[in-house]
Amino acid sequence: MTLLGSPTAAASYRTLLSDIDSSSNIFVGGLREQSTEAFINALDMFDDPPAVRFLTNGSVLKWMRRDFHVASLAADLTASDTLVLRDTEDDIENTLLVTDDSAIPLIAGDGQTVTPETDSEYVEAIQQHCSNAWEKHTEFNLRTPPRSRVYETLAEQLSDDMQSDYQTMLEEIGSTRSGRGETQDGDNLLNEVGLALLSGARQTELLYDLSNWGDRISLASRATFSRLKSKLEEHDFLETEKVPIEVGRPRQRLLLAERLHKFDADELPYAVRDELENSSD
């Protein structure tokens, strides 16, 4: 019996996946937003997960892409050939997980259970249907770097402390989706770029080095880093000082606002969020 759609959906998916051989190739179709996030989190918990073909409505995957926290996990799974994402504009009537020898309806809703279908003729028919649907669509572009690559390159190209701060903030905040750190003008200061800038300010990094790193790994363009740095300055969360160089314009060193020095990395995003919320009252 499989319980899905509850507040512990990721744990439920993990239990479901743990019963599937890691050498299997499975098909998952039709999950909506929260269920997709829970499934990605569950799949990431395994050292040796099964290979997954994942098909759902394009709006769901675009929703996921707006949250770096879950999109970067999905990108890790894609890079390791564990997960392939394809999108469709069609509504998928039946939400299913199909293995080599079973078809499992996935029903959202607290306390609802389903039993896997194992009749061989039925399963073969479902497998063929899913394969036909899969072949009609192309791979979805996450446009998000794998999280492991983000952490690795950040430590290599800036510093271990910078990487540690960024990882701590990202994991603490949980989601970088809009609405959790927005200004009155709608700028999200606690997205993946804003957190990188705050981490950089804690470690007094150069904006030039940080933005070049972000641009190289396709986290965001240098222009995006510069624009969000200005927004953080406008709200007095950070400031910059000029650092002369031998040739060309001075670089800008990122500095955290003095009142924020007392906060550890795991506390800083909440301090910023609280100030933003208070300023909007």
Your description of this structure?
Residues 21-145 form the Transcriptional regulator TbsP N-terminal domain. InterPro entries: TbsP-like_N, TbsP_C. It comes from Halococcus thailandensis JCM 13552. This is Transcriptional regulator. Residues 146-270 form the Transcriptional regulator TbsP-like C-terminal domain. This protein is α/β, with parallel strands linked by helices and 281 residues long. The chain has 2 domains: 2-135, Endonuclease, Chain A (2-Layer Sandwich); 147-280, Arc Repressor Mutant, subunit A (Orthogonal Bundle), CATH 1.10.10. The protein has 11 helices and 9 strands. The protein has a 5-stranded mixed sheet. A hairpin with a 7-residue loop joins strand 8 (238-243) and strand 9. Helix 1 (9-18) packs across helix 2 (33-43). The longest helix is centred in the middle third of the chain and has 16 residues, at 120-135. The chain is elongated. The model is unreliable at 1-7 and 109-113 (pLDDT under 50).
